[in-house]
Amino acid sequence: MAELTYRQAVAEGIAQEMERDPLVFLLGEDVADAGGAFKATVGLLERFGPERVRDTPISEEAIVGAAMGAAMTGLRPIAEIMFSDFLATCWDLIANQIAKTRYMTNGQISLPLVIRTANGAGSRFGAQHSQSLESWAMAVPGLKVVAPATPADAKGLLAGAIREPDPVIVFEHKSLYASKGEVPEGEHVEELGRALVRRAGEDVTIVALAAMVPRALDAAERLREEGVDAEVIDVRSLVPLDMSTIASSVAKTSRMFTVEENPRLCGWGAEIASIVAEGLFDDLDGPIVRITTPHVPLPAADELEDATVPSVERIVRAVLAAIG
Amino acid sequence: MAELTYRQAVAEGIAQEMERDPLVFLLGEDVADAGGAFKATVGLLERFGPERVRDTPISEEAIVGAAMGAAMTGLRPIAEIMFSDFLATCWDLIANQIAKTRYMTNGQISLPLVIRTANGAGSRFGAQHSQSLESWAMAVPGLKVVAPATPADAKGLLAGAIREPDPVIVFEHKSLYASKGEVPEGEHVEELGRALVRRAGEDVTIVALAAMVPRALDAAERLREEGVDAEVIDVRSLVPLDMSTIASSVAKTSRMFTVEENPRLCGWGAEIASIVAEGLFDDLDGPIVRITTPHVPLPAADELEDATVPSVERIVRAVLAAIG
Amino acid sequence: MEDLTAGAAPPASGIDPGRIELYRLMARLRAFEKRAYDLFLQNLVKGTSHLGLGQEAIAAAYGVAMRADDYTFCTYRGHDHTLARGVPMAPVMAELLGREGGLMGGKGGSMHLTSVAHGMMGSYAIVGAHLPIAAGAAWSAQVRGSGQVAVCFFGDGATNIGAFHEALNLAAVWRLPVVFVCENNLYMEYTPIEAVTAVKHPAADRASAYGLESILVDGNDADAMLDVARSTIGRARDGEGPSLVEAVTYRHGGHSRADPAKYRPESEVQEWFARDPVLLYRTALEAAGAPTELFTAIEADADREVDEATEIATASPRPSVSIIDRDVWSDGGSAWRN
Amino acid sequence: MEDLTAGAAPPASGIDPGRIELYRLMARLRAFEKRAYDLFLQNLVKGTSHLGLGQEAIAAAYGVAMRADDYTFCTYRGHDHTLARGVPMAPVMAELLGREGGLMGGKGGSMHLTSVAHGMMGSYAIVGAHLPIAAGAAWSAQVRGSGQVAVCFFGDGATNIGAFHEALNLAAVWRLPVVFVCENNLYMEYTPIEAVTAVKHPAADRASAYGLESILVDGNDADAMLDVARSTIGRARDGEGPSLVEAVTYRHGGHSRADPAKYRPESEVQEWFARDPVLLYRTALEAAGAPTELFTAIEADADREVDEATEIATASPRPSVSIIDRDVWSDGGSAWRN
Ligand SMILES: Cc1ncc(C[n+]2csc(CCOP(=O)(O)OP(=O)(O)O)c2C)c(N)n1
Ligand SMILES: Cc1ncc(C[n+]2csc(CCOP(=O)(O)OP(=O)(O)O)c2C)c(N)n1
Ligand SMILES: [Mg+2]
Ligand SMILES: [Mg+2]
Question: Which residues on D lie below 8 Å from C203 (Cβ)?
Fold first, then answer.
């Protein structure tokens, strides 16, 4: 094990796969010389050269379009979209082209490509640079979606995504880039589609993703002081979705809470909640409670942003109110 | 009352508002001379002239961007995006600019604009021209979203949308354009945010939208033969959402089914289901069941398309299986 | 694409066999699209469909000039481009009819014809999207050093969408082996391109914005098209980077099956029918000494081929609904949860 | 914008008062941005921030040339453009600091400065998006016959995104009263624009693709900028349609607060600092006979204005969290259900 920051782990994950497979290429704005706007690709240009690590113009459609064309003709490209908010500028390429082409061509075309993007709030960047958009991708058939919460997962899930034969969007979290954690040394690859119980507990299940995972864990500690033993599940992969890990937990605790950073409507939490409301109805002892950012764009000022996204305090209060 | 087709009702709704308010303008591809790809704007050019009814290049970002710039400076533009699938090509303008600008500017800028678009399956157009994407819009704070199911609503909700001081996306349904129905004569405007009980019933609540409404009604007739008395609610407006009409019904029937044309994950049905699972948990007698298109892109061939989108048969089976 | 040069009658002596091959291909495309139109009228074609009638010289010239492993990217108006890569007619026809034997098993439909085995990398139905994708395929060919070229066809209307601009710039900066071919048929769906475009030649007048040479060609002159096809592909193959070609042409029918094309002045239609590329080319070849029997044979062959394809396609069963859940993922399935 | 011409010292006789006004504005922008930078260093500015240091002549020239009811659209690098429309410094500063007294109450932040009352129609943080929006405002002015002009500022990097292309074409076809001003500061975030652009002048070399005149101007020459600003706005106001201007300039600092700008060759930085627009203009005005006291007074005024603004801004309270749920909708609230 080595202690790495999340951003270092991203670079390591890319390097590991570029080393292993000469068909892996990286393209995006400022990814080469500058090492990425979030410094998550530092060192890759030096190591793999300008042919495999390429700066692009500010042309998001060209970036993901080029990745798609390359993926269908033998490469395994990794396209960086600097902020997840900018996925909107190339959403046609992602949602209508990349996601659908394998199906429309009756399986003739495979698209082993990764789109990496910096997601989420916490940097006071305002409404156009702070969104949590993983649910947009989850809603589109044909896309796989992961969102690592730890440096180990930043490396392992990214490596797993690069090895996938299908398109994967990796939502890295801006506010986690500086976080540190143990990352296995040597080759490290995580299979997509496995949730992790980050904390075992008996009383309630809290399902969280990315930056909400450490908050849910902190909330669980606080809840313990209140006599509530919370199990915390890190979803990690929205597509494929590990419902069996979630279901086992809910079957045990009979109460489920989801913690989402995205705005309220139609998020992944709604999906999981409604799956549980259908499939585990008889296991539930009480309402399913979603803890989300309210359905508003994100404000910029620090106090405002902090009060908008779910906090440890808010998670604790919501759990206590529901079971109290 | 006059009997009109849904497409005629759209044109009437636009004409009614253009007549009333000289600041209403229409722009889009082929909307003027050709009367629209779906003939839903026939006659408007003749009536209101080329300044107010404008053909555009194939430039979706320019179309909705121009609508936004015009709306913030005094016009009330209606932008047509020919197929809802193409919303993806201008999604940045819609989700990041139009939806967020009022909030980011602390209320300085209002955007009274409408985006009309042809949504949904049934025409064998394949995966890039058949999507039901109303849930994409619902997921973005700052957008209002309606989806009329009848000619009367096609006119009334569109007129209501045009009068709204906030941006509204109107999802017209391709497979309903030829449908006929009574439309009130004279001025007809529907307020956004009101669901309608289209059929009263005691045993189960079926919540549907747009083209799924007639199917849910047909299913209710079939269910009656099986001894099940279904209440059918037409949601009509996803944002604002009339939860109180839905909640009253579920409180009465204790069982809820949603019928969605969109692919399975993170649709409006998941949102409503999870609201009910939280707020009406004690009223429910059994699992909430979502009937949706499976989570796949839409196939083109007629048999395949018909078997993918929820059918009357599938609704009936799902209800009977759940309550059986 | 060996089958393209095979045929009953031998080429007339003294005429470049490539020209005869080109004519034969155009005649085949013409015959196919006419049949497709007939099948519309019989209500056998499902969904929408966009014919290439009148525009055959462009697809055919590139079809003849391309190497077997080159890549084609085109739009919903892609029947011609698909056939021009050597894809057999029957599965294309069957796809239009929504049958199991369709090129994509009925899943894609007329607008999404794809045959990777023939280098036909897809027909894209959202205007402009495939330009960056074609650039990506060219990038892949470049870094793999394969010598492959990507050819990307699109309409005049596509020149006003953002993806056009992004793709052209990227291709030029990276000197990618890609040829962008604008088929300027003067109309978008129903609106004349000149009504919504800031320059007279929507592609050619913009080449300089990407540091490229302006190439304007008569898209109904098959010989001129073949020259342009060979030179632009040659440049790309030789590492000299992308080209942007504007080929001016005209569609004989409406935009799609739904469109009677009433918006076009009768005189304009007449003028362009007189400039039908198949007719023009036949006249040119006859003037160069090709015997009438040659054309009779070529046309008979084409008709027979279309008849056979129609037979096979109409005999193909309806697709089984079991494929709905297939091939979202590379494992062949569509599971999104455990 | 009366306040812009007000000042302690009278203009030197014999010099066009417009030039003095322009200098005064540039000096004010310079003083503001320097202070903003100091406040970063004190960690008082929240989030990111993008300074206009070195690029003042462009914003100021247009600020002087615009009519009070004209529209400005700009990017995240928009402090200068906002102040140039007459927006007072204090609320701009307070917005940078995330305070209640901020121009948008702290909701928008540095990247989204907007003051509709001053015709400042927004700062947009996603590259390219505001070009079509500006076209729409110009369309509105056109159909309302108001005589207003929209001026839209953007960086060199924005010329490679699709929205640029779509907006330019639409503006040209509709002959909209809009002026597109590319501030070419040679770099995107960290990558030189020339490394990713197919033409030397990313905007000027593309004007012809929209049937527009190519306009390239030294963005650090305030007089030249004022000429261009007046002529392009004049054309727009007179119904002669849009212009696309490329003003070449240089930012003194990094792209954003996080960026030490190490990627730029020292010699290049030196060269451009020697061409500092404020310095150059002062020298030019002095050569034309403006007395030193004039500049001393202007600079003292600017510093005092900035001091006062800083005082007001730092005294402004933190925003109340009660505004989080406000102003999603025109009714002032954010309710999405009953
Ligand atoms: C982004 C987008 N906008 C609109 C459409 C609808 N549409 C399909 S074809 C077409 C006209 C295209 O014209 P052109 O590019 O000239 O090609 P042609 O059909 O003439 O070959 C339009 C507007 C679309 N498919 N995609
Ligand atoms: C669509 C989009 N892509 C990427 C970014 C990230 N980004 C912000 S500023 C910037 C560089 C812009 O360069 P330029 O247009 O030259 O403007 P400058 O900052 O030099 O004024 C980039 C890439 C963005 N905001 N929007
Ligand atoms: Mg055309
Ligand atoms: Mg720049």
Answer: none
CA of D301 to the centre of ligand 3 (A): 60
* Ligand in nearest proximity to the CA of C157: 1
Our answer on whether the CB atom of C74 is closer than 6 Å to any ligand 1 atom is no
Q: Answer left, alpha or beta for residue B113, where phi above 0 means left and psi between -120 and 50 means alpha.
A: beta
Judge whether A60 counts as a catalytic residue: yes
Structural domain contains residue A219: yes
Structure tokens at B12: 């009437």
Contact A58 CB / ligand 2 (< 6 Å): yes
State pTM to two decimals: 0.98
**Closest Cα to atom 13, ligand 2: which residue?**
D188
**Single-letter code of the amino acid located at D240:** E
Q: Do residues B173 and B222 share a domain?
A: no
Query: Cβ contacts (< 8 Å) between D121 and chain B: which residues?
Result: 69, 72-73, 109
**Count of C-beta atoms within a 10 Å radius of residue D279:** 13
Reduce the DSSP state of residue C89 to 3 states and report it: helix
Q: Is residue B158 part of a domain?
A: yes
- List, in sequence order, every residue forming a beta bridge with D184; answer none if it has no partner: D248
Q: Which CATH number fits domain C17-313: 3.40.1410.10, 1.10.10.10, 3.40.50.970, 3.20.20.150?
A: 3.40.50.970
The answer for A 225-254 residues in CB contact with C (under 8 A) is 239-244
DSSP one-letter code for A295:
S
Please, which residues 94-153 of chain A have a Cβ atom closer than 8 Å to chain C? 96-97, 101-110, 112, 141-142
- How do residues A226-273 score in pLDDT, each as one tens digit? 999 999 999 999 999 999 999 999 999 999 999 999 999 999 999 999
Atom of ligand 2 nearest to the CA of D184: 16
Any idea what the CATH number is for the domain that residue A25 is in?
Answer: 3.40.50.970
A51 with A6, same domain: the answer is: yes
The DSSP letter of residue C30 is H
Between chains, do D189 and A265 touch, taking CB under 8 Å as contact?
Answer: no
Task: Sort strands A230-234 and A196-199 into parallel, antiparallel or unpaired.
Answer: antiparallel
ipTM (interface predicted TM): 0.98
Q: Which residues pair with A5 in a beta bridge?
A: A180
CA separation, residue A221 to residues A213, A216, A230 (Å): 13, 9, 8
Q: How far is the CA of A245 from the centre of ligand 3 (A)?
A: 53
CB contacts of B33 in chain C (<8 Å) are: 190-191, 263
Each residue's pLDDT expressed in tens, for chain D with a length of 338 residues? 334 344 444 555 688 899 999 999 999 999 999 999 999 999 999 888 999 999 999 999 999 999 999 999 999 999 999 999 999 999 999 999 999 999 999 999 999 999 999 999 999 999 999 999 999 999 999 999 999 999 999 999 999 999 999 999 999 999 999 999 999 999 999 999 999 999 999 999 999 999 999 999 999 999 999 999 999 999 999 999 999 999 999 999 999 987 989 999 999 999 999 999 999 999 999 999 999 999 999 999 999 999 999 999 999 999 999 999 999 999 999 999 99
To the query of whether residue B60 is one of the catalytic residues in this protein, the response is yes
How far is the C-alpha of C60 from the C-alpha of C182, rounded, in Å?
Answer: 14
At which of A152, A183, A214 does a domain end? Answer: A183
Whole domain around residue A200: which residue ranges?
196-323
Ligand 1 within 6 A of C185 CB?
yes
